[in-house]
Amino acid sequence: VQLVESGGGLVQAGGSLRLSCAASGFTFSTADMSWYRQAPGKERELVATITRGGRNTNYADSVKGRFAISRDNAKNTVYLQMNSLKVEDTAVYFCHARNWNVYWGQGTQVTVSS
Fold first, then answer.
1. What's CA 55's distance to the chain center, in Å?
2. Other C-beta atoms within 10 Å of 58: how many?
3. pLDDT digits over 62-112, tens only?
4. Fewer beta carbons within 10 Å, N or C terminal of the chain?
5. Cβ–Cβ < 8 Å for 18, 35
6. Cβ–Cβ contacts within 10 Å for residue 38, how many?
7. What residues have CB less than 8 Å from 30, skipping those under 6 apart?
């Protein structure tokens, strides 16, 4: 099983990034997919979730209206579009899959400068 994140980087406040997570080794369409993040010295927190069919999404209050999670089950990929980025969005972002098992990606760094 692999979850491989990409798309992180350095961006100025107010900018945008799109994270991708390519999944393999399990049946992607059976899993609810989420993005988590962990900032230095802080606990890992849930950012957004999308259900297996893509019908339902949920967001942390801190990112509502700025971030959008989506998935393409044909490509086994989940995305996180991040707009209007703030310095406090700086963190390592992790892809997470849950069906009857739980899988984590290795993370991708997002740094937002002021």
1. 17
2. 14
3. 999 999 999 999 999 999 999 999 999 999 999 999 999 999 999 999 999
4. C
5. no
6. 14
7. 52, 99
Model pLDDT, residue 17: 98
Residue 21's pLDDT band, with cuts at 50, 70 and 90, is: very high
Question: Residue for token digits 């993370």?
Answer: 107
Enter the DSSP assignment of 65. Answer: T
Interatomic CA distance for residues 1 and 41, integer angstroms:
29
Q: Which one-letter DSSP state was computed for residue 54?
A: S
CB atoms within 10 A of CB 4: 14
21 by DSSP, 3-state: which?
strand
Q: How many helices (H) and strands (E) does the chain have?
A: 0, 11
Whether the Cβ atoms of residue 79 and residue 18 lie closer than 8 Å to each other: yes
Percent of residues, the chain, with pLDDT higher than 70 = 100
